[in-house]
Amino acid sequence: MDPLSTACVPEAEVIDLESAECRSGATMAKSMGHSSGFHPKQQGHRKISLSPQSKALKVSGTRGSLNKTAARVVSRYRQSRVLNRQKKDNTTFGINCRCQPKCVVNIIKEFDDRKKELIGEVGFDGLLDIKLTKVNRQFGAWLLSKVDPKSCAIVKDVNQELPFGPNDVNAVFGLPCSGQPIIPCSQDELDGKKQILCEIFEIPNFSHLKISLLERILKKQYGYPMTIDEKRVFMAAFVLYVTTKLLAPQSCANFISPRYIMAVSDVDNIKQYNWSQFVVDEVKKAAESMPTCFPNKAQLSINGCIIFLMVKYLRNLQFRKVGITCVKTCHISQFEDDQIARMIQQDVVSKHNPGFPFPRYGKLQLMKEPRENNPHVPELSPLNLCSGSKIPSRAIDGGKNLIKFLESHFSSLDVRGTVGSQAYEELKSYVQDGFDRIDEILPTISDFVDISTMQTAIHASNLFKRAFKTNITAVVKIAIRAAVTKVIDTIEDIQGPLHPWGDTTAMGYHTPTNYSTHATKDASQLDQPTEFGSDGQKKRKYTVENPPSHLLKHKSKRVVKPNRKLMSPFMSKQCSTERLESRIADDLYSYIMSISDDASLEKTWLQSSHPFRISLTLRNIQETIKIGSQMDSDSLNLAIRIMFQQEVERFHNTNYLGWRHFINQDFGMYALAGEEFWEASHQLAHFSGPEVVYDVSESHLILIPVHLFNHYVLYVFNMESKKLSVLDSLNTEDPLGESRFTRHDKIKIMVSQCVMECMRLASPGWNMDILNWDFETVENIPEQQNG
């Protein structure tokens, strides 16, 4: 407890802090005001103290003087109890920000015109317009934790990053952004530079150069006109002060760092140094020293110019109501404390962020910066993008690894051609490292309890590892496609749209999947080779390459007769379906599995180019049809595309065209990923476009497969009866302990909301609320027991 001033009272009173009267400061003050035998003019001084034995507070003083004091003491006591209790649990972290703009603002507001002119001579006049006096320490710590020193960018997530450099510092503060670099001096040079500063400030040694001395120099009232020596002293003092307090702080003490005295000692040429680059370098050093975890740590100090990071980040967020205008002055002049606080509040994702001393920020999306404001992005074109050239992205500089097993999962995505050979190799190793860390879970748990003999725990761990590997594959796939999407957006910003809407051979479908295709291959390369298949196969837009044709003869046909009682195209229209006999299917399976040479396994057997490219090699097909293996996502997507095309061909020019609408599993993957990965406009190709030759809002059924842990689930949206049905074949509990009837409680809401968003974009007049529809989990379906 802080020591309190003495108060006048004849006798001390004892107030129990645990009593109901001490629940508020006003109540306690009132109880003291009615004490007997008291006169406000009586003298006598005693202190206020806390009795540890009785948990009581001894208060001595006049009634009038104790009103605020008592409330403050009780409040501090209660806060100290809470803090002490939290510190015992290692859950309280104090954040100390060494960037102190308030000190700079208080100094600058007293400057006259002569002092301001001198600041302009050294190139620091942009700081004269600063209005910010507060730094949100939690927000600053979060921002600093998002800075990647290698790529020099604020990496918000895998899909959004905000690069920064000396030009950005110049735009924020107006500091010089060219000239000589500011680097630390050698020991011999350092002694000489210190001596120069001692002569400038007329002090016996460098240890006397402190913040208090600089403040006295800056606040001093100079005569008119100022002498040359006075001007040199003032300019050197100002640069040292703002660098220590704002631009490159490293200590809250009155300590002047020797890191930048080389430039300050050259007073007459301060403007000739690259101060903007120096600020960037200091921010990168602060980010490197930022811990990645905070175990048992009660204090965190953040260095660097946090104000710069805040202004740079907040200026590039998409706010609904923003009070920022594009003016020619420095960006720092456009921000005030209240405005910053409101903007930060809008960016909060969650106040609870376990393991970190700050909330989760990053709710708002980043704006696309014009090319001229982003000097870090070089000229991009489809030509150098296809050639495997390096892309200036977080995928190359920061988190760049994709292991070999992903090659089988990414058959529809040319990763090497998209991100370059170097990034591809690094990306492989990072993902492998992530998988290897899963094996560290059991040893970590065993520190608390021995589970080596618990079969249930071991089985649960194995289920978790399988689920993790399946889902991490999907996450990496999303990240890669999102990165490619960003590259395509950059190209379109620079060169305009790459295609006309409606061109079925061009990049006109705004999904990350088709972006990945056209980002790596020219449109002409995606045309079907003339030797592949017959004319009928080319019209169907999918081909079988190098097929074992002798096994595909003598197919039996089954005629489905109409049934007028059922309102379904499959019963009300006579149509034929082809079914492969079991003997032929067995022979085909044996033939496919018998091929083992690498050259044949790498040949492409199936591919589809529209609306986005899917290509399956023989190896992909073997892994998909192998007994006990899971179906590859690309194989499932191709099967769904074939069903979609068959329906279009079968019911063309009939009223049943589009009775069933098929959507591939990528839609469900993005819907479950949510947040920054979900963008309804990117999924619009599933509901409209040249390939969808009917109005989806008039469809009877919409079928969406969703991948959950180790199995697929089918979501069926009945648009006529307004009912959502889920076909889930897994009867056992999943790795999270959810049953078939409970695991869809949240998933159905996520998928339904995404469907509604896309339907309203594709059909503006559509206004159904799927969340209010009936829901059922279909039971009479085959069940899988393999988990």
Query: What is the CA–CA distance across the termini?
Result: 59 Å
Count of helical regions: 29
DSSP helix fraction: 40-55%
Name the assembly state: single chain
Q: Count the E strands.
A: 22
Number of domains: 5
Major pleated sheet: 5 strands, mixed
Class from secondary-structure proportions: alpha+beta
Mean pLDDT across every amino acid position: 70
Q: Looking at the structure, what is the overall shape?
A: elongated
Strand order of the largest sheet: 18-19-20-21-22
Specify Rg, calculated over alpha carbons: 35 Å
Tell me the β content. 5-15%
Low-confidence stretches: 1-61, 85-92, 321-327, 370-413, 495-566
Brief synopsis:
This protein is of the alpha+beta class and 787 residues long. Helix content is 40%, strand content 11%. Strands 18-19-20-21-22 form a five-stranded mixed sheet. The chain has a three-stranded antiparallel sheet with strand order 2-5-4, with no helix packed on it. The protein has a three-stranded antiparallel sheet with strand order 7-8-9.
List keywords for this structure.
787 residues; alpha+beta; 5 domains; five-stranded mixed sheet; three-stranded antiparallel sheet; 29 helices; 22 strands; disordered N terminus
